[in-house]
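We treat protein structure as text, and this decision shapes the records that our systems exchange. The remainder of this section carries one protein's record, kept here as part of the documentation:
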Amino acid sequence: MSAQRMTLESGKSLGRASLARAARSLRLAAGLIALAIPLSGCGTGALWDKFTAKDDTFNEEPADKLYNEGLYLMNQRKDLKAASKKFEEVDRQHPYSDWARKSLLMSAYSFYNAGDYDSCIGAATRYVTLHPGSPDAAYAQYLIAASHYDQIPDISRDQGRTEKAIAALEEVIRKYPTSEYANSAKAKLEGARDQLAGKEMDVGRYYMERRDYTAAINRFKAVVTRYQTTRHVEEALARLTEAYMAIGIVGEAQTAAAVLGHNFPDSRWYKDAYNLVKSGGLEPSENKGSYISRAFKKLGLG
C-alpha cells in the first residue's frame, strides 16, 4: 500500500508559544495569591481547590500534522508502535475527519507489520464497519484475513485460527471479487484449506495406528468430500482403500482405488491402493453411487 508523501509541519508558532508562557505566568500568580488566603473560614476550601486544580487544558494538534508524523515514524524511523499511536491520535482528536478515516487504515497496517495481529483485526474491522463503501474497504478486509492467516498454527494444534482465516478470506473474495486482493486471498485460502485437510489426515493416521478404522474413515472421508483440491487427497483415497479393506467393505475400497487411479494415475499412493485391492483378489472398480465418486463428479474431477 502506498503512503502519502510526508509534508512535515514546522514547530508551533511564536504566537502560540507566547500564549503558553502567558498562561504559565497566570497560573503561577494564582498560586501565590492562594498561599496568602487563610486556610480557615467559610468557603475557603472551594476557593483553594479552584486555585490548586490541575490544568487539564487539551492542546489539539492539526490532523494532517499527526498523520504525517505517523508516516514518518512508520517509513523513516521504522517505529511501528509509535506510528500506530500517532494514527490513533488522529482518530481521537479528529474523529469525523477524512484524516481519521485514513489514519484508521494506516493504524491497522502498522499493527499488521508489527505483528500485533489482534490490534490489526480490531482496527481493520472498525474501518470496514464505519466505511463499508470506501475504496480501501477491500484492503481492510484483506488485513483482517491476513492477520488470521499469519497465525495459523501447525497441524498438531487447534485449528480455530485457520477456520477464522478461511471465513475472512472468503469474505474478501465474495465482497470484492474484482479487487487486487482477491487473487491473493484465493491463494491463501488454498493454503488454509490444505492446513485443515492436513489436520484431518493427522488424526486419521492416529486412528489407523490404533486400528480404529471407523474413526479413521470419518477423517479421510472429510478430506475427500471437502478438500478434494488439496495435496492430501491422494493419500486420503489410499487410506480409505486400506481402511475399507480392513473392515471388509470391499466395494468402497474398490471405488476409492478406482477414483484415485482415474484422477492421479502416476501417484505412488495409487500404486499402493492398487496392490492392496489386488491382494484381496479384486480390481479397482468405481461405484458411481458412492460418496467418493460423487465428491469428485461434483468438482468435475471424476
Remarks:
- The CA atoms of residues 277 and 283 lie 6 Å apart.
- The first helix runs from residue 14 to 36.
